[in-house]
Amino acid sequence: MATAKKTTTAKAPAKKKAAPKKKPKELISIIVPCYNEEDMIDLCHKAITKAIDPLPYDFEIIYINDGSSDKTQELLEKTYKSDKRAVIINLSRNFGKEAAMTAGIDSAKGTALIILDADLQDPPELIKELIKIWKDTGADVVYGQRMEREGETWLKKFTAKSFYSVINYIANNVEIPKNTGDFRLMNRRSIDALIQLREKHRFMKGLFAWIGYKQVAMPYNRAPRAAGETKWNYFQLCNLALEGIAGFSTVPLRVASIFGLIISMISFIFGAFIIFKTIFFGSDVAGWASLSVMISFFSGLQLLSIGILGEYIGRIFGESKKRPLYFIESTSTN
Ligand code: UDP
Ligand code: MG
């Protein structure tokens, strides 16, 4: 895992007397999770190499095949044979992007790493800029922040915006920067911090923010997908949003209790009113309409509260099993 912490020597020129030109360069790891990206592998590798070739660093490009069912693995093997900077981690099945990224982060040997999507939505040309900001500001994390969401519907933009507002309002202690994805550079210190967070329910944006340290934004325009299609549908996005909220906040639980409290108070007053009315004015068997409305309202509220409780219990269940985040089928390194 993170044992290779000291394999790279950022500044070791002193001992190298004989061959000053061959001074070891700093190693930077690039992490690319791939799931059914057969259309993208070649394009992606070309774009990455084009971007990194002129840079004065050593690179390892870690591709994680997240249990693809198409030719992704085959193409990755080919890439790996033709470029000795490529490393292939082949997972035993599809574990999801979060786990795939974690597999890459765990095995990164660089003094810094950069996470990229295989679909080129995070432009590899910006690797240079990320490194520059990292070096200039001395930040621990430089995260890409989307300025425009090209090729996305207004509904997606709107839901994304609302999501950030809600989560930042209710999340305990973490501020998740708006319009950020996984595209970022992290230095060794923040990588080592992130590696320690082994929770099964991985809301990465939250985890990235949770570790703290100095984090700096790099604004960029996120391009539309170059080929293939997104693996996220709305249902999965809703799940991700829920994951974020339930993973980083206990506010929904509190809201349920507060609702319960307010409604109990109201019903107490209402009860007192009915008793008072019956004693002094007698009972005229009316009121079935209000009764049925109340019954259905409260049943709905109870179900909702049980549902909220269930979300958290489900998470406890998931975490308590302590299963590993992923399994590796094979690794190819040069
Ligand atoms: N991905 C993955 N495992 C999955 C789903 C996606 O490794 O189960 C990878 C995918 O190959 C791509 C990145 O995660 O490199 C982003 O996926 P996608 O483009 O579908 O997401 P979007 O850009 O729409 O958020
Ligand atoms: Mg994408």
Describe the protein's topology.
Blueprint: E1 27-34, H1 41-52, E2 58-65, H2 72-82, E3 86-91, H3 97-107, E4 112-115, H4 127-137, E5 141-149, H5 154-170, E6 180-187, H6 188-195, H7 204-210, E7 215-222, H8 234-248, H9 251-281, H10 288-320, E8 328-332
Parallel strand pairs: 1-2, 1-4, 2-3, 5-7
Antiparallel strand pairs: 3-8, 4-6, 5-6
Helix pairs in contact: 5-8, 9-10
The chain binds uridine-5'-diphosphate and magnesium ion (MG).
Uridine-5'-diphosphate is lined by residues 33-35, 37, 66, 94, 96-97, 100, 117-119, 121, 225, 230-232.
Strand content: 15-25%
**Morphology call:** elongated
Structural class computed from helices and strand pairing: alpha/beta
Question: What is the top-level CATH class of the largest domain?
Answer: Alpha Beta
Low-pLDDT parts are 1-12
Can you identify the CATH superfamily of the largest domain?
Spore Coat Polysaccharide Biosynthesis Protein SpsA, Chain A
Helix content: 40-55%
What does the average pLDDT come to? Answer: 83
Tell me the Rg in angstroms: 26 Å
CATH architecture classification name of the largest domain: Alpha-Beta Complex
Q: What is the count of structural domains?
A: 2
Q: Say what the CATH topology of the largest domain is.
A: Spore Coat Polysaccharide Biosynthesis Protein SpsA, Chain A
Tell me the total number of β-strands. 8
Number of helices: 10
Largest sheet: 8 strands, mixed
Identify the strand order in the major beta sheet.
7-5-6-4-1-2-3-8
Calculate the terminal CA-CA distance, rounded to whole Å: 17 Å
Bound molecules: uridine-5'-diphosphate, magnesium ion
Element string (H = helix, E = strand): EHEHEHEHEHEHHEHHHE
